[in-house]
Amino acid sequence: MTTSLPTAEQLGALQRAVNLAEIEALGRARLDQNALDYYASGANDGHTLRANREDFSRLQLRPRMLVDVSGVDTRTSVLGLPLDFPVGIAPSAFHGLAHPDAELATARAAAGMGSVMTLSTFSNTPIDGVGQAAAGRLWFQLYLLADRELSREIIAQAEACGARALVFTVDAPYLGRRETNERRRFALPPHLSAPNVASRETLAGVETDTGSQLTNYFQNLVDKTFTWDDLGWLRAQTHLPIVLKGILTAEDAELAVQHGCHVWVSNHGGRQLDTAISSIAALPEIADAVAGRVELYLDGGVTRGTDVLKALALGARAVFLGRPALWGLAAGGEAGVRRVLELLRDEVRLALALSGRQNLAGVGRDLLRR
Ligand SMILES: Cc1cc2nc3c(=O)[nH]c(=O)nc-3n(C[C@H](O)[C@H](O)[C@H](O)COP(=O)(O)O)c2cc1C
Ligand SMILES: O=C(O)C(=O)c1ccccc1
Predict the structure, then answer these.
(1) CA–CA distance, 278 with 208 (Å, rounded to integer)
(2) CATH class for the domain made up of 23-359
(3) For residues 86-109, average pLDDT
(4) What is the number of the ligand 1 atom nearest to the C-alpha of 40?
(5) Ligand 1 near 122 CB (within 6 A)
(6) How far is the CA of 170 from the centre of ligand 2 (A)?
(7) Is the Cβ–Cβ distance between 358 and 73 less than 8 Å?
(8) How distant is the alpha carbon of residue 93 from its chain centre?
(9) Exposed, middle or buried: residue 73 (CB in 10 Å: 0-12, 13-18, 19+)?
(10) Residue 93 alpha carbon to ligand 2 centre in Å
(11) How many CB atoms lie within 10 A of CB 93?
């Protein structure tokens, strides 16, 4: 039921959607309770989940007038990869809960739109297939596993399959407690697996007496001992640039730079430490600390072109979409993710023009009211 194909009528509604909120409604309507709980949930009371959005809307823009905006240009690049507009797909586990084409659909949409997809370690589709679908527009998200040998194999595979960066998630030594998942005992349906990590070890064997199957599964696999001192080990495993995903303070951003890593500001979509600072509120001190020495990205709560510009104004080079891509995938597979990206691209272009900026280089802190 969860992963049926969208009907012609549903695909029609997708094409008529005028914003990401409408696509969210379409996507939600196509998911069963299990998948919906997993995608939508935040940790505990959901304060950080909401703050990610609310803190964007609190920021006010200072548009300039009488600028020639006949040829607005939204292009940029991330780690040398050209992007048609400054938006990529954040890593999320288990795209198979949304659509039978799973990560392949997401990758095709990102590639077709001149964007970039970050593939989760916990994808339902093996890396090599996604690498082909992404046509070079692929980053790989790493959860470092307690099994270092398996981690090495995964990194080597990602590199061999064309990933252009290794996005190392640092905010999840344990999973945050998503209480709806606990209450309803989230479980991965039997037809789905996580082939990058667990083709050998099926989810079925995971103890589910306490907590959700997912939490136990994750907790058994991930390395909880890893510190800054171990980054040298990771550095030695790959030639790829390393991006640390989940940084929320200037102190950690400084350490990231000292360790030769790029910085991805994120609170994991409000799914980890509840009441942690929103991503957009964390960004300014991090941008000041980084001071242009490495690339800086942000995710969390981005649903509007104006959100994208606000993040860029505060120092991000590009932003990434978590749930919005999943809602698009649920609503219409590749076409749904494509529609999300198209709408956001067009919103970025219009917001840029109405702000009196011709290109992204013109977006600085003066775009925002202090
Ligand atoms: C259902 C779901 C699964 C996720 N899985 C992962 C993951 O496997 N690895 C990871 O680094 N982040 C994961 N994230 C976090 C996202 O990469 C991203 O930080 C977050 O969703 C951004 O917030 P947004 O959903 O408001 O756009 C996941 C998020 C969601 C909603
Ligand atoms: O749900 C998540 O946020 C997440 O990062 C994750 C990834 C893999 C397995 C379980 C949780």
Answers:
(1) 32
(2) alpha beta
(3) 98
(4) 31
(5) yes
(6) 12
(7) yes
(8) 10
(9) middle
(10) 6
(11) 20
Reported residue count of the chain is: 370
Is 88 close to ligand 1, i.e. is its CB under 6 Å away?
A: no
DSSP per residue over 261-306, as a string?
A: -EEEE--GGGTSSTTPPPHHHHHHHHHHHHTTSS-EEEESS--SHH
Joined tokens for residue 362: 């013109």
Q: Complex ipTM, two decimals?
A: 0.99
Ligand nearest to the CA of 20: 1
β partners of residue 167: 141, 243
Strand partners, 145: 222
Nearest to 298 by CA among 92, 241, 242, 286: 286
Q: Give burial (CB, 10 Å; 0-12/13-18/19+) of 195.
A: middle
Helix (H, G, I), strand (E, B) or coil at 135: coil
The ligand 1 atom at the shortest distance from the C-alpha of residue 121 is 8
How far is it, in rounded angstroms, from Cα 140 to Cα 128? 11
Q: What percent of the chain has pLDDT over 90?
A: 91
- Distance CA(237)–CA(226), nearest Å, equals 15
Residue ranges of domains in the chain: 23-359
Instruction: Dump pLDDT digits (tens) for 166-201.
Output: 999 999 999 999 999 999 999 899 999 999 997 545
Q: What percent of the chain has pLDDT over 70?
A: 96
Distance from the CA of 140 to the center of ligand 2, in angstroms? 15
Among protein residues, the one whose CA lies closest to atom 1 of ligand 2: 93
pLDDT at 210 over 80: no
Ligand 1 centroid, distance to 89 Cα (angstroms): 10
